[in-house]
């Protein structure tokens, strides 16, 4: 009897122990199951990103790194008139005695007329366009410049503004004498002031010409007096002149009827010099076509270059144009051809 009782008690203890053991395992098993479920869910979500096909991963990288518009720029010639060949124009007959000629519509970015635009030619004083551009870009127009002996060493028949050695004159006055009256002495005084020497300034001219796209140009001086290794093209002149007319200060100068420069001699004496424009339209010696407003421009003449002129003009709606004629046999032919070019291209042949 007692034996049976002991066995029953032993079975009861085992059952209670088993129930306690099972109760203690329950939370552990549940935790394990929950962990498995959580890991499975995370793995499922990550598998969509981490284990996508290679091409899908490449698309994600490309969209992240290459489709964000990091840089948006314009092509170099987007705002330029461009042509690589001659182009005829109704109402204007090619004058084959010229070296080159061109008409450029700045608003439409269109070459309206082109004749030998890319031929290398001697530029004469149209060289001073680049000298003016560098003066505006690198110079302080309020600077007072002392004129050297080198700047006054010109022959009687070479265009000057009557500077004298030791004169003190502002850079602005020199720029006006350079652009309006085409003073060779002003060109040298400017070059020496900005770069220290004519040679260093010529190097700067070539660097800046190349930066503007004028790759068929080579300068050896700031004024354009003839040297065999000093050349440009009608198209390169357009590029340089186009850069100048973007500066309102340049437009203001070429539109002047005259300018009075103030010079202080090395003895302290102050004098003035009146400088008139060199182009015939500004002087009133040539008439612009009806409907064309010629602001002004730059001339150049040597035996080798012939007679040259480049102009900035507007039509009746204020649309801007650049025109260039190079290598005319004389001034009469130069301005007759320029007038016909402007009339045909801007006003449709009105006289």
From TrEMBL:
Residue span, Peptidase S11 D-alanyl-D-alanine carboxypeptidase A N-terminal domain: 100-329
Keyword vocabulary terms for this entry: Carboxypeptidase, Hydrolase, Protease
Region of interest: Disordered: 1-23
Record-level Gene Ontology MF annotations: carboxypeptidase activity
Presence of the UniProt keyword Hydrolase in the record: yes
PANTHER family in the cross-refs: D-ALANYL-D-ALANINE CARBOXYPEPTIDASE, D-ALANYL-D-ALANINE CARBOXYPEPTIDASE DACB
Record protein name field: D-alanyl-D-alanine carboxypeptidase
Native species: Faecalicatena faecalis
């Amino acid at each position: 009897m007692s034996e049976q009782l002991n066995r029953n008690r032993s079975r009861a203890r085992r059952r209670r122990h088993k129930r306690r053991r099972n109760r203690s395992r329950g939370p552990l098993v549940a935790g394990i199951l929950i962990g498995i479920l959580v890991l499975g869910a995370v793995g499922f979500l990550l598998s969509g990103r981490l284990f996508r096909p290679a091409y899908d991963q490449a698309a994600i990288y490309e969209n992240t790194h290459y489709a964000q518009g990091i840089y948006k720029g314009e092509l170099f010639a987007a705002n330029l008139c461009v042509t690589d060949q001659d182009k005829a124009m109704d109402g204007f007959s090619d004058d084959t005695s010229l070296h080159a000629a061109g008409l450029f519509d700045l608003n439409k970015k269109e070459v309206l007329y082109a004749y030998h635009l890319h031929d290398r030619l001697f530029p004469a004083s149209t060289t001073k366009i680049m000298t003016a551009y560098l003066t505006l870009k690198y110079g302080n127009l309020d600077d007072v410049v002392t004129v050297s002996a080198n700047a006054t060493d010109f022959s009687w028949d070479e265009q000057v503004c009557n500077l004298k050695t030791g004169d003190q004159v502002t850079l602005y006055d020199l720029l006006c004498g350079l652009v309006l009256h085409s003073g060779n002495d002003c060109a040298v005084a400017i070059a020496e002031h900005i770069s220290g020497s004519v040679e260093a300034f010529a190097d700067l001219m070539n660097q800046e010409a190349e930066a503007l796209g004028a790759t068929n140009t080579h300068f050896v001086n700031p004024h354009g007096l003839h040297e065999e290794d000093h050349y440009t093209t009608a198209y390169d002149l357009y590029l340089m002149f186009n850069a100048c007319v973007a500066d309102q200060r340049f437009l203001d100068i070429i539109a002047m009827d005259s300018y009075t420069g103030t010079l202080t001699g090395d003895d302290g004496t102050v004098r003035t010099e009146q400088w008139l424009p060199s182009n015939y339209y500004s002087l009133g010696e040539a008439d612009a076509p009806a409907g064309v407003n010629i602001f002004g421009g730059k001339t150049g003449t040597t035996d080798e270059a012939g007679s040259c002129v480049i102009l900035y003009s507007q039509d009746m709606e204020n649309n801007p144009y650049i025109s260039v004629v190079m290598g005319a046999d004389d001034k009469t032919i130069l301005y007759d051809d320029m007038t016909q070019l402007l009339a045909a291209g801007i006003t449709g042949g009105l006289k």
